[in-house]
Every structure is written in C-alpha cells, then in structure tokens.
Amino acid sequence: MLDRRDPINYVDKEPVPAHIATAPPVAHAALLGLGVYRPRRVVPNSELVDQIDSTDEWIRSRSGIESRRWAGADETIVSMSVAAAADALAASGLAADQIDAVVLATSSQMVLGPSAGAVVATELGMHDTAAYDISAGCAGFCYALGNAAGLVRAGQARHVLVIGVERLSDLLDPTDRTCAFIFADGAGAVVVGPSDSEGIGPTAWGSDGSQTDAIKQDKDFQEYFAEVAVAADGGAAAERPYIRMKGQAVFRWAATFLDKAGRDVLDKSGLTVDDLDAFIPHQANSRITDALIRVLHMPDSVAVARDIVETGNTSAASIPMAMEQVIRSGQARPGDTAMLLGFGAGLAYAGQVVRLPAIV
C-alpha cells in the first residue's frame, strides 16, 4: 500500500483481509469404543453402617446401593483414567497416536494444575495432543461428550478421547449420614470419531446456579490451606474439604425438572422413548431412576442401567461405567440406541441419545 503520510500519491482503499482457512467439517460423529476401570476394593454396606448409625436395609431402601468401589493409594485419577482409556482404544481399534484431543471430566482432582487430561495423554504415549479438563459435577461426562462430538464435527479433531473419572472417597466424611455411603470411585472412557451415520445426538444441557448449596464442597482450598498453616503453628488440626449434600433438595429437583431435560434430549434427537433400546441415567439414586422412568413413560422393553447397586455414585464416571455394565450384562448391545442423562452438582444436567459403542 502507498504511505498514508504521502498526500499526493495516497489513495484511500480498504485493505483486503487475508483469507483464513477453515477445517473441513464432518457430518456425523459416533462412539467408537468404550472402556472402564473399577477399583479393586469392594466396600459393602456392612463396613459403613456403624460410623453413620445406619443399617444395610436403610441404605438399600434409600439409595439402592449394596456395595461400592473405593480406590487404593495406587489407584489415582491418572492411573484409573489410563486403564479405562487403554480399553476404550482397544475396543475402537485405534492407537494412542491417532487421538487428536483428550477431554477429561472430574470433580475430584485435588490440584488445579496441570490438567489431569494432559498427564493422561502423556501416560498413554501421546505427543503434542490437545487435552483439558471439565468440571460439571455428575453431568461432566455428557458435557465432555458434547464437546468431543463438536470437535469432530467441526473438523478440529478426527478422534477424541473422552474420560469421566472420580476418586470421591477422598472427599467423604466417614461420619456423614447423607454422603458417606453414596459416593465412590472409578473411571470410564470412550473414543469419539467420524461415522457414516449419526451416532451422537445433539446435547441438551443446562444449569441452575441458584441451587449450588444442594451439593457442594464444604470449604474451598484457600480456607483449607489457611487451616493447615494454623495447624503448623500448633493450632487445631486442619480438616480437609468434604462433599456435603441436601438429599431432599436434589431429589425434588431431579424428580421434577429432569422430566423436561429428558424430553429435550429426545426432541433434539428427533426420537421418542419408543425408539430407545436402553436408558442410562447418572447413577445417583435408584429412587431417582425410578422416578425418571415413570415421568418419561419409559417402556418395559427399554433396558435401564442399575450399576449403582454394586458401584455406587461415581459422579462424572457413572454414565460410561453404567453403559459398560448394560452391555457387559447382555441387556443391550453395541449399536443399540440409548439415552444418556447426567445431572447433579451445579446443579447441572446434560444428555444425548447415542449408539452404544463396542467394548473389549
């Protein structure tokens, strides 16, 4: 261009903007493979009842839980994620170097950085792979799945590894009658990639921040570290942050609002409950699952995930783990049409209709 400071030779013209390339989009995305990791230690209700002044019968009647898995010292957020992801890769027939991005959902990573997703990617042998974490409570896996499907369809990534993982036993007050028997540990992972036909419906999601007190960590880490400093100077011992939950508030919200959420999932996918082969809700509480079946008028022909009985509530890991249990048990098969619906802390929800993936 001519120098604007030269009044004789200068002609005012709009500059032509440089052309920015766009990635070629992909029409359809699908779940290509699924893997899970269940911690070794099985904890039956009988181990917990004395500390919370309860009974096995009461726990079963209130939650449907008979046992849960709690991680050992060597079963970390990263190691459980790596194990689940390795099986998901094997089921999809893909190698780690074919993954372009890792999206990891968790609420129990006890440090802010580095992201667990980045560490998992490196542990799996990936190099220079995009990776990040999502915190959306028990809806986290469906949030991450929505992100992954969007990346694939937009051409930003060809294959995305999605992980839901929790070590919630680290955040449990063993004397808290509202929480100590509910939450558990584990990991689930899926590989998302391009498909000839649609395998992941649009995400229906939302949140209600006015009800943050319904499920929350009872103190932030700044407060906790201040207590640690006081303890180091001879003061009272610091008490780590714990999960606290108002069970009745959560149940009321789930039993009323999630009717709309479930219908939004189906509407966005252009399907009805009669088109479903399986229903895989977040494994929060058997009574909430029963309520959802009623309000959504789910047919008896639809297989309903009940992984909570032996796995407990694993928050962001619960949907992939329940998906695997439904397939492993023979209640549903790869390729079947299933509705996923995650909900919990936030309060937040998210859901999609998917074609069930292969497992190893």
Automatic annotation (TrEMBL):
<keyword id="KW-0963">Cytoplasm</keyword>
<dbReference type="GO" id="GO:0004315">
    <property type="term" value="F:3-oxoacyl-[acyl-carrier-protein] synthase activity"/>
</dbReference>
<comment type="subunit">
    <text>Homodimer.</text>
</comment>
<feature type="domain" description="Beta-ketoacyl-[acyl-carrier-protein] synthase III N-terminal">
    <location>
        <begin position="132"/>
        <end position="209"/>
    </location>
</feature>
<feature type="active site">
    <location>
        <position position="282"/>
    </location>
</feature>
<dbReference type="Pfam" id="PF08541">
    <property type="entry name" value="ACP_syn_III_C"/>
</dbReference>
<dbReference type="Pfam" id="PF08545">
    <property type="entry name" value="ACP_syn_III"/>
</dbReference>
<dbReference type="GO" id="GO:0033818">
    <property type="term" value="F:beta-ketoacyl-acyl-carrier-protein synthase III activity"/>
</dbReference>
<comment type="function">
    <text>Catalyzes the condensation reaction of fatty acid synthesis by the addition to an acyl acceptor of two carbons from malonyl-ACP. Catalyzes the first condensation reaction which initiates fatty acid synthesis and may therefore play a role in governing the total rate of fatty acid production. Possesses both acetoacetyl-ACP synthase and acetyl transacylase activities. Its substrate specificity determines the biosynthesis of branched-chain and/or straight-chain of fatty acids.</text>
</comment>
<dbReference type="InterPro" id="IPR013751">
    <property type="entry name" value="ACP_syn_III_N"/>
</dbReference>
<keyword id="KW-0444">Lipid biosynthesis</keyword>
<feature type="region of interest" description="ACP-binding">
    <location>
        <begin position="283"/>
        <end position="287"/>
    </location>
</feature>
<dbReference type="InterPro" id="IPR004655">
    <property type="entry name" value="FabH"/>
</dbReference>
<dbReference type="GO" id="GO:0005737">
    <property type="term" value="C:cytoplasm"/>
</dbReference>
<dbReference type="GO" id="GO:0006633">
    <property type="term" value="P:fatty acid biosynthetic process"/>
</dbReference>
<keyword id="KW-0275">Fatty acid biosynthesis</keyword>
<feature type="active site">
    <location>
        <position position="138"/>
    </location>
</feature>
<dbReference type="InterPro" id="IPR016039">
    <property type="entry name" value="Thiolase-like"/>
</dbReference>
<comment type="pathway">
    <text>Lipid metabolism; fatty acid biosynthesis.</text>
</comment>
<protein>
    <recommendedName>
        <fullName>Beta-ketoacyl-[acyl-carrier-protein] synthase III</fullName>
        <ecNumber>2.3.1.180</ecNumber>
    </recommendedName>
</protein>
<feature type="domain" description="Beta-ketoacyl-[acyl-carrier-protein] synthase III C-terminal">
    <location>
        <begin position="266"/>
        <end position="355"/>
    </location>
</feature>
<keyword id="KW-0012">Acyltransferase</keyword>
<keyword id="KW-0443">Lipid metabolism</keyword>
<feature type="active site">
    <location>
        <position position="313"/>
    </location>
</feature>
<dbReference type="InterPro" id="IPR013747">
    <property type="entry name" value="ACP_syn_III_C"/>
</dbReference>
<keyword id="KW-0276">Fatty acid metabolism</keyword>
<keyword id="KW-0511">Multifunctional enzyme</keyword>
<comment type="similarity">
    <text>Belongs to the thiolase-like superfamily. FabH family.</text>
</comment>
<keyword id="KW-0808">Transferase</keyword>
